[in-house]
């Protein structure tokens, strides 16, 4: 079996595992055994998704002499998706490690990861303009937004109680967007007989999951306001 085919199998299997497991930590007790166990399995699965996607994208762009223009543009987009999922998962885990910080965060590796997401969003958007692709122009704005949010969080002193919990939610949900988007884009066309290149189809998971994130944030903010001394949530 050639290396590319192996990475594709890993990508599909890991993506399916991540798609199924993502919902479990969202509905189970935060900090509980099930939440932590399934959460880590999800992170490992998404790591495999990101690495395999990055490899396949790079291979198509730089080493596949038979790749046409459409495949090249999609491969660049695949590289961006791998960066989106990988950096978001990294961010979601790292905010937990530094949840007790009281000052700005100056770890170079974390700042570089968030900067990578931010800059890749800019670069991919410019590329989309050059090739006149609405999808590749506008979808990467998500990377620009998320990268900016991450950098803003690291470079400012925490102001909210349990700030790390909200950022953890944001990182994990952002990470899941790539998986849910892939499922929607490649599954929906077969079921609904629509074009997978539809911008609306690509943006649908984001439009669904962002309100979910807002809902979680509002719920826990109200909860912490009611219980000022609550320390029962530990992730």
List keywords for this structure.
globular, 235 residues
- Rg over alpha carbons: 18 Å
**Could you say which overall geometry the principal axes of the C-alpha atoms support?**
globular
Helix content: over 70%
Report the order of strands and helices.
HHHHHHHHH
- Please, how many helices? 9
Write down the overall mean pLDDT: 84
Q: Mind summarizing the main beta sheet? A: none
**Secondary structural class:** mainly alpha
Low-pLDDT stretches: none
Portion in beta strands: under 5%
* Extended strand count: 0
| N-C termini distance | 41 Å
Task: Itemize the secondary structure elements and their pairings.
Elements: H1 3-21, H2 23-27, H3 33-62, H4 69-97, H5 108-130, H6 134-138, H7 141-154, H8 163-192, H9 199-226
Structure summary:
This protein is mostly helical and 235 residues long. The protein has helices at residues 3-21, 23-27, 33-62, 69-97, 108-130, 134-138, 141-154, 163-192, 199-226. The chain is built from 9 helices and no strands.
Structure description:
- The chain is mainly alpha-helical and 235 residues long.
- Helices cover 78% and strands 0% of the residues.
- It is built from nine helices and no strands.
- Helix 1 (3-21) crosses helix 8 (163-192).
- The longest helix has 30 residues, at 33-62.
- The termini are far apart.
- The model has no long low-confidence stretch (mean pLDDT 84).
